Structures are given as C-alpha cells and as structure tokens.
Amino acid sequence: MYTQNGKYIRSFGAEGKDVANVNFPYFLSVDFCRGLVFVADRCNHHIKVFTADGQYSHTIGNKGVTNPPLSNPRGIVVSDSGSVYVSDNHRVLKFSCEGYFLGRVDSEKDWLSTPIGVALTIDEPPKVVVIDRDNCCIKVFEQ
C-alpha cells in the first residue's frame, strides 16, 4: 500500500495456503463503503477478504465448500450494494460480500473461455462486463 504521494505504507498477505495467505493473487477490488479489500487468490481457489488495514477478514468460495466451488478465480468486482462478482475458469459467479453464493451470472450456453476481467456498468441495475480471453471478445450480461 502507498500514500497518494507514492510513499510506501505496508503490504499484507504472504505466499502460502494458510487462511490469511495468498497463492498467486491475480486481481483485487476495493469496497470503499465497507472498508474491505477482495483479492482473487487464483491458486488457492478462493477470494480472500481483508480489512483496509490489511487484517484477514474472511474467505469466499472455498474449493469443495462453496456451492459451486471456485476454480482459479481471475477477475473480481464489488458493487456499491456489496455484491461480489467473480470470474473463474469458464463462468461468472455472484456472492454476497459475506460470502454467500447468490447465483451464476452467465450460463453454459454463453461459452465463456478463461474470463479474466469483470466490471460493472453504471446502469441500474448494473450490467456485468467480462473479458472472454480465449474467445477474443468482451461479453455483457444483464442480471
């Protein structure tokens, strides 16, 4: 973490498989309303949630625990309402900021292949925009 002037403050999360560690962090999203940082922890197959001061808070999408489990999450965005959108191998999933699975944004027929980025439009309700890397396109989904 750095100040607006570029001065180093601190880092958090260390490589590993323990609860507060990360293994190949791929992307992050900041929830300014709740003061939380969501990190796509690709090789541990879940989302790690930290407080603004770097303390571990909780995990979303534990492999084998969440229905469905995450697999190599690569993209993440948090809406103003606290919904967490995560792209993993071939889909985009929606969770509450507490980690409850709320549903799948895309469907099998959408043929996502390695979605790597997720964003939200300013529409109400927002549309979910995802980079579909292997299909060389950007796809937009209504909720």
If you had to describe this structure to a student in words, what would you say it looks like?
The protein has no helices and 11 strands. The protein is an all-beta fold and about 140 residues long. The strands form 3 sheets. A 4-stranded antiparallel sheet has the order 1-2-3-4, with no helix packed on it. Strands 5-6-7-8 form a 4-stranded antiparallel sheet, with no helix packed on it. A 3-stranded antiparallel sheet has the order 9-10-11, with no helix packed on it. A hairpin with a 4-residue loop joins β10 and β11 (about 135-140).
End-to-end Cα distance, whole Å, is: 33 Å
User: What does the largest sheet look like?
Assistant: 4 strands, antiparallel
Mean pLDDT level: 89
Protein structure class: mainly beta
Question: How many strands in all?
Answer: 11
Q: Main sheet: which strands, in order across?
A: 1-2-3-4
Form type = globular
Instruction: Evaluate the radius of gyration.
Output: 15 Å
Summarize the helices and strands and which ones pair or pack.
Elements: E1 25-31, E2 36-41, E3 46-51, E4 56-60, E5 75-78, E6 84-88, E7 91-95, E8 101-104, E9 115-120, E10 128-132, E11 137-141
